[in-house]
Amino acid sequence: QVQLVESGGGSVQAGGSLRLSCVASQRTFSTYDMGWFRQAPGEEREFVASIRWSGGSTYYADSVKGRFTISRDNAKNTVYLQMNSLKPEDTAVYYCAARPGSAYGIATMTQPSHFGSWGQGTQVTVSS
After folding, report:
1. What is the three-class DSSP state of 31?
2. 34-to-9, 13, 125, 128 alpha-carbon distances in Å
3. Which of 15, 66, 4, 11 has its CA nearest to residue 37?
4. How far is the C-alpha of 49 from the C-alpha of 72, rounded, in Å?
5. Are 4 and 118 in contact (CB under 8 A)?
6. Which ranges in the chain belong to alpha helices (H)?
7. What's the pLDDT tens digit per position in 55-109?
8. Helical segments of 36-93, H only
């Protein structure tokens, strides 16, 4: 299990920006696929973005394409989610997740059930 700690959430007005960070405890962070997921009240947890351990390929939910950017800094054991042009419907608790990259294929990069380590979540609230 990897220990994950998110930060950077908060309250912003529509059109604003936030950058979420997630620091991992695992020294072999570079071998982990990393993902961001979110959960709004009364809703299921949904995929937002993910980044592959090898090659750094990125994947995005259609709802955030062109607005959000996922990136990683392996030297800092950190994954980021830059969120621009935020909308009220982006309001949710955002969770960082990790999994050993070599154990999974790219077909499951969007599926929360295929990520085994989770952070505690950080609240993002976007007001209109």
Report:
1. helix
2. 18, 28, 23, 30
3. 4
4. 12
5. yes
6. none
7. 889 999 999 999 999 999 999 999 999 999 999 999 999 999 999 998 888 889 9
8. none
